[in-house]
Structure to design on (384 residues):
């Protein structure tokens, strides 16, 4: 029997405690027990979002939350700016366009970060006049680059624009101080560092976000956040429509695990494991796509494929050996492989992935020094 251990940038491994919590008998979503569960979950979500703002949960994929973050705060014709550093930033701008917004696309070079300075320059220019919102992908899953949310937050505050962040593959893996850094809207999904199966997505919304919401004319029904807030504020909190009760049981347990480990420790673990993995990859003699440590994601690492090595053969070898990794997306298809090290992951998983990398390349006629790579990787792990 073969396992299929997930070292992808999502969905990620689900801890057995979470799976067991989902095995319990279903409850109805209009009874007090559900209200108590939703209240409990909402408080824990505020802890992981590092916010006092309202946090809403919906059944849906991360892309649903991307759409929700457009239609709830803007109107057709609104000028908005997107920092685009890969596939997911491009997707968000495309959704904005579909709803009639006028997106200005900043950056565009995959593998590079969009900086606070880039945004400041735009918002101070003629082209940037009238921009109502700035959209940033915190962790660009397609490349393994992450954005400096704090400094971008200072620029958004200076120009008084709404600040929206896609934290789908970063929340809990990489620090996101929602309130302290002035982020008005943060979206995420269950299947990444939240260690829960796919199917839930989340929004945190600031006071300023709700003010924008009142003016926003984009059509919405399912994703109407104001309607969801009304249900959440009932004496016994509810969702407006049928919630994914079973997934919420699992999420509750995952949030307990995160609280128990402590958010700061969870961030540290992700950083330590990413350093361990990056060191191992380089010691194997492979090329990291993101060389600059300052923007290298603690959640996902992209590895350049040398001439003559096919991505499908490497990921196929992994699959046949019980581990699932990801290939490149969009313009990076066939050029890179991506390894996710977020959520329920430890040094043993990183070590196994490095061993399998060495074996996969060997199967393609390229011998790598796995022993040296493991030695260096474990040294970094122990010293971090
Ligand atoms: C940064 C980012 N945003 C959005 C999404 C979209 O999420 P979903 O696939 O759940 O629609 C993903 C998925 O990988 C992502 O990594």
């Amino acid at each position: 029997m073969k396992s299929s251990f997930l070292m992808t940038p999502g969905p990620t491994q689900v801890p057995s405690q979470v799976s067991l919590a989902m095995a319990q008998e279903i409850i109805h979503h209009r009874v007090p027990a559900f209200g108590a569960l939703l209240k409990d979950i909402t408080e824990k979500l505020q802890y992981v979002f590092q916010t006092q703002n309202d946090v809403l949960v919906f059944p849906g994929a991360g892309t649903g939350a991307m759409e929700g973050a457009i239609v709830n705060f803007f109107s057709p014709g609104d000028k908005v700016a997107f920092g685009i550093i890969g596939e997911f930033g491009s997707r968000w701008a495309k959704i904005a366009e579909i709803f009639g917004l006028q997106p200005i696309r900043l950056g565009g070079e995959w593998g590079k970060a969009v900086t606070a300075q880039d945004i400041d320059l735009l918002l101070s220019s003629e082209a940037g006049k009238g921009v109502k919102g700035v959209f940033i992908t915190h962790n660009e899953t397609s490349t393994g680059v992450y954005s400096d949310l704090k400094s971008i937050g200072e620029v958004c505050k200076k120009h008084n624009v709404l600040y929206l962040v896609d934290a789908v593959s970063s929340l809990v893996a990489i620090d996101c101080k929602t309130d302290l850094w002035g982020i008005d809207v943060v979206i995420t999904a269950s299947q990444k560092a939240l260690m829960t199966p796919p199917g839930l997505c989340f929004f945190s919304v600031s006071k300023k976000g709700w003010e924008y919401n009142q003016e926003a004319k984009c059509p919405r029904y399912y994703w109407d956040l104001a309607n969801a807030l009304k249900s959440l504020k009932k004496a016994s909190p509810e969702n407006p429509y049928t919630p994914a009760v079973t997934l919420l049981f699992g999420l509750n347990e995952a949030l307990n695990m995160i609280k128990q480990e402590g958010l700061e420790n969870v961030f540290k673990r992700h950083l330590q494991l990413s350093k361990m993995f990056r060191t191992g990859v380089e010691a194997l003699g492979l090329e990291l796509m993101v060389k600059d440590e300052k923007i290298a994601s603690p959640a996902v690492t992209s590895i350049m494929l040398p001439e003559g090595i096919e991505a499908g053969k490497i990921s196929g070898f992994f699959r046949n050996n019980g581990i699932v990794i990801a290939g490149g997306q969009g313009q990076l298809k066939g050029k890179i492989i991506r390894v996710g090290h977020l959520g329920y992951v430890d040094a043993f998983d990183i070590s196994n992935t490095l061993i399998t990398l060495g074996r996969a390349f060997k199967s393609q006629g390229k011998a790598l020094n796995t022993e040296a790579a493991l030695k260096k990787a474990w040294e970094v792990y122990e010293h971090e």
Summary: The radius of gyration is 21 Å.
